[in-house]
Structure formats: structure tokens, C-alpha cells
Amino acid sequence: MPALPTLAVVGATGAVGTVLCQLLSARRNVWGEIKLFASARSDGRQVRCRGEELTVQTLTPEAFDGVDVAMFDVPDEVAAHWAPIAVTRGAVVVDNSGAFRMERDVPLVVPEINPGQTRHRPRGIIANGNCTTLAMIVAVAPLHREYGLRELVLASYQAASGAGQAGVDALHTQLGKIAGDRTLGSRPGDVRQAVGDDLGPFPAPLALNVVPWAGLLADDGWSAEEMKVRNESRKILGLPDLKVSATCVRVPVVTGHSVAVHAVFAAEVDAESAREVLRNAPGVIMVDDPATGEFPMPIDAVGTDPSWVGRLRRALDDPRALDFFVTGDNLRKGAALNTAQIAELVAKELTGR
Amino acid sequence: MPALPTLAVVGATGAVGTVLCQLLSARRNVWGEIKLFASARSDGRQVRCRGEELTVQTLTPEAFDGVDVAMFDVPDEVAAHWAPIAVTRGAVVVDNSGAFRMERDVPLVVPEINPGQTRHRPRGIIANGNCTTLAMIVAVAPLHREYGLRELVLASYQAASGAGQAGVDALHTQLGKIAGDRTLGSRPGDVRQAVGDDLGPFPAPLALNVVPWAGLLADDGWSAEEMKVRNESRKILGLPDLKVSATCVRVPVVTGHSVAVHAVFAAEVDAESAREVLRNAPGVIMVDDPATGEFPMPIDAVGTDPSWVGRLRRALDDPRALDFFVTGDNLRKGAALNTAQIAELVAKELTGR
């Protein structure tokens, strides 16, 4: 065991990997050597991380030798293949893909909520939640502890970068094509025509539009994204019977997922007490003064760590329900930050400090 | 009584008034003379309507003499002043403002739902609903008739034109300012800086953002828009105790309001039967095949009459609840079309044909 553990970042050149490197430069340093890995097309690229110029390498099994903690941000099938190899070579894997999240012997950890579960990792893998779940759950969990959560009805406003750098590129390209034509958006199909084939990873144009679909098709008309939000919320909160209905919608925002939350509790709630709970909750910042134009929005929350919560009010027709709006940076708390936080918990455990 | 009734359009040069004139040109003609009114700054402007060039006039009390039906699309305070004057001069007023909607002696009519109420107008005024209510209620009402509605949880995705032509202009101006800079949307405040003071009628930039606020501040942190959706839904459906929680959010779309709907009913529901109900419902078009990329979106629904409904599925954890997504043209069914439909019902009553 070295004095400071060795870290590997797998998927270092993607949208989330790039933010991970930024975070490693900005957060308190708990790491010894840092190794960066990506697919073959990034091999040899130089990336600045923690003040050093690091060379991105292609993955091999041997590359994990000597690695204590490996953060994975790669597609599900890549994680499914490589994470067990990293474990075999001695690393603890913190995985941001969907490959292991719902496995019973893989903990799904949000450090503000269930940090102790990092230690229960029989397969050597700890999972990070989906970006939409993470934005919202940091605010929901402290309210659950106070009032006892029974049901969530959620509608999301998800940013292009949730689909990776290709999503961001597509949105900017589309905006470039529609800008300047002030007639667009007023006739059926005119935006489709202007955008043409530049859809990127989305099933329809995102510019001047909202797309009520994210992820693959699951059963009975549900999207995989909506199922993730339901199943991960239940697992993180330890509430296997929690009622959850989520509608996941992509919007023309670069970074920052927002969620309109309707949360029903076992006990009566009071808006002012709920605000006080959230003001004291880790990872949450309250921005809730509509009279002065203060509410959570992606253009403010992007690039920041906490979940921004506002528009909090008690349901008018149900004294046990709260309505509120949350915005979080889907690349930070929704991905890289939560991964880094989990990895730091493991580093602390490994080094005893 | 003339063979064909005389129609006045008050607010003929605004975003909704412009669509009203287009609709009057396209729909079956039930009108004799058409008179167009607007504020003094549009006085004398020529507007093409029903194949004629009409001159826009400034309002005077005498201008309503001989008018049988007056459609109003003006700010609340203008409607509050002028609608009673029009009634005194002999016109039936169909008002699209919020000034009279919740008055007990003013019917709030959606012709697909409660057409008979146009005849119960002791004050001579019939109100048109708010654009967000209308987009969604056309789909909710037939499901209510089938299953008995108990509760609605709604999150909206509202277009810029809901705030009038000034909203559309502001969005296009903002898009012009942000286009071409592919770095925008990734750092806190960078979009605010690029947009500058060109906010138009919105409290924050709409480009690359979502703004969880529409309308004035009501009590307890609710927006006036959210209160309208609740109160108007109850009145239109005749359900004074209906539980409604709405979160109203503005998105960078030109025209086309969308709503994510979670509807809880008295009886168990079945997604396929619900789809059949909606396929047979007037004013609704089902677009619900996610496997082929078919779901309701503003870029397709804009410029069309029906409410587009899709993403319909039964809640996984509540057999009495349905989740679905609706998009409607907020200037058509959400405003001008519903106004025209009500006015046509009155024309039919007045002429007996």
C-alpha cells in the first residue's frame, strides 16, 4: 500500500472524464499517481490534470496493475467488460455506467446519503447513480429522513451533455443553423428542415424543441432513463416499494439537468420547515425567492457542485406533499463529482486517513 | 339580426390576434362583417383577413355598435375595462384574458368539453382558458369521463410566444447572440453575460436555459400561472375539489406548450383502453410510438389545431394512474382557436344555423 493510493481514470477524454480531470485539479489531493485511460483514438493525447501533463493510454489488463482505485466513465458494455478485469488486478472500481447499478451485490452510493455502503462491495465495484437521479435525490433524501417519503412524481428537463460530448456538439451545431432566421419555430416542420441530419445522439432536433425521450425503450412505453430514475431512487433511499413516476424530457440546454418534483410524504409537511431541512442538507443550496427572480436554473447551476433547490411550496390540495424544482450540473454531481466523492471515501478507507 | 353576424377582433395585431386572423381565413366562414381593433400604435395598419384587406382601428365605445360577437385578446386590465362596454353596446364577448375566467357568472368554455355553457352568460361574457390549461385539458377531459379524475400532477414546458410577440422576439434575439460560440452553457453565468439585457418579458435568459417561473407571484410561492392551471381545470371539468399540483416552466421554444401529466383516477386504468379513448376524443391526435421516434413535440405540433398526446403509460406503482405527455399550439388551441370555436358556437346560436 503506497502512502497515497494510485488512481486510474478510465474514459478520461469524454464529457464526464474531462470534468473529472478538472475536479482532480481542484479538490483536496488524496491521490498518488494518476493514470488516464481512453479508447484507442485518444491514445497519446496529453491532458492536464492536477498541474501535470498526463499521457492518455489505451486500456490493457496489465495497465491496472498497481492501481488502487479506478474511476470508470465509459459506455455500459465497456464497463461491463473492463471493470471486473480492473478488480482482478487489485483495483476498487467506482463505475459511472449503468452496467452494475442495480446488481444486488454492488452498492449504489451517494456520499451525502449512504456513504457507509462503499464498504460493502463484495465484487469490488461501487456504482454511481444516473445523472437525473443524482440531481434530485440529494434534495429528496433529507426530506425523506424528516417526513418519510411515500411517492415521487417527477418531470425532467435534461441537458444535451447528458448524452456526452456528441450531444453538446449537436446542440451547438443546430443552434448555429437556426440562428438568424426569426421565422423559425412557427410552422410545423420548419425547425426539422433547418436542422436537417444534424441530430447527433438525439431522436429529433433539440434546438427550439423539447424531446420527451431519453435512453432506450424499456417495457410498456417507459424509457430506460425513466426506469433508472425509479429503480435507483428506491435503491439509494432503501425504499424498495417507493412509488415513482418519472417523465424524462430532453431540452436545449448544454449542461444542467432540472427536475420538477412532486413528493408525497407519510406526515404533514410545512414549507418553511422543509426549507430549513434543505438549508442544512449537505450538497444542497436553496435559491428560493421568486419575488426577486431567484430560482434554480441551468445557466447558474452549471459548473457548480451542489443541487440547486427552489420553487418549494406545499401542495395546495395535499398537506403531505411538497412541490419543488431542482437543478444540478449533470457532469458534476450527476457524474464526475459523485464518482470523485465515492473514490475519496475509498481512498480514506485504504489509507486510514 | 343580420343574416351573418358581425365580428370584432380586439387585439388583432398581437401574437394571438395574428393567428386569429389566419384562422378566420381558413375556417368555414360564419361571419358577416369583420372589424379589427388594436391599440393606438397599430391604428390604420392593414391586415389581411378572410381574403380582404382590413384596416385596424382604435377602440371607442361606439365602435362596438352593430357588433354581434367580439373576440378579445388583450391584457387583463384592457379586457376588464372594454369587455363590459362591448356588452353594453350589444356584443357577446369571448375573452382570452384572465380578467373574467374565474368569475362565477362567466362560463369558461372548451367546446370539446362543455359547449353548452356558452348559453349561460348572464354578463354577456364567455371566457377562454389559459394556454397551458387548454393544451392539457382536451386530453384529460375524455379520460375523466371514462375513469373519474381525482388528481393531476403537472409540469409544463411553455413556449416563448405564451408571453406574446415580445417573448418570441426576445428568444430569437437571444439565440442570435449565443449562436456561434460553442463554449457557451458550460460555465456559470456565461449565457447571462452573452444575452445581456435582452431578456424581453422573461425574468432570466431563455436561450440555453429553462426558467421555472411564468406569470406574477401568487400566494405561498405559487406562480399565478400555476394557480390558473389548477383553478381553470377544476372549473372546466366541473370538479371543484380536484387535487392539482402544477409546476410551470418556460423553455426555449417559439410556439407549442407541452405538459408532462400524471393523472390519478377513481378506477383502475389500462393504457391500451386509455389510448382508444384518446383516439376517439375530439381535438386530440395520438402520436405514441417511441420505438419509431413518434412522440408529441412542439416543432411538429406548432401551426396545428389538435392537442398531440403520446408517451402514454400506466404508472408502474399505481394502477389508477396514467402518465403522458401533451403538446399543443399555445396560440391556436391554447388561445385563438378555442376563442374562434366559442365564437362560432355563439354565431350558430344567434343565427339559428
Question: Can you describe this structure?
Answer:
The structure is a homodimer of 353-residue chains. Chain A is of the alpha/beta class and 353 residues long. Chain A folds into two domains: 7-129 and 335-351, NAD(P)-binding Rossmann-like Domain (Rossmann fold), CATH 3.40.50; 133-330, Dihydrodipicolinate Reductase, domain 2 (2-Layer Sandwich). Helix content of chain A is 31%, strand content 20%. Chain A has helices at 15-26, 76-88, 131-147, 165-178, 190-195, 224-237, 271-279, 298-301, 332-351; strands at residues 7-10, 34-38, 46-49, 52-55, 57-58, 69-72, 92-95, 125-127, 149-157, 243-247, 257-265, 284-286, 307-314, 321-328. In chain A, helix 1 links the parallel strand 1 (7-10) and strand 2. In chain A, helix 1 (15-26) packs across helix 9, helix 3 runs parallel beside helix 6 (224-237) and helix 3 crosses helix 9 (332-351). Chain A starts with 6 loop residues before the first strand and ends with a helix. At the A-B interface, strand 9, helix 4, helix 5, strand 10 and strand 11 of A face strand 9, helix 4, helix 5, strand 10 and strand 11 of B.
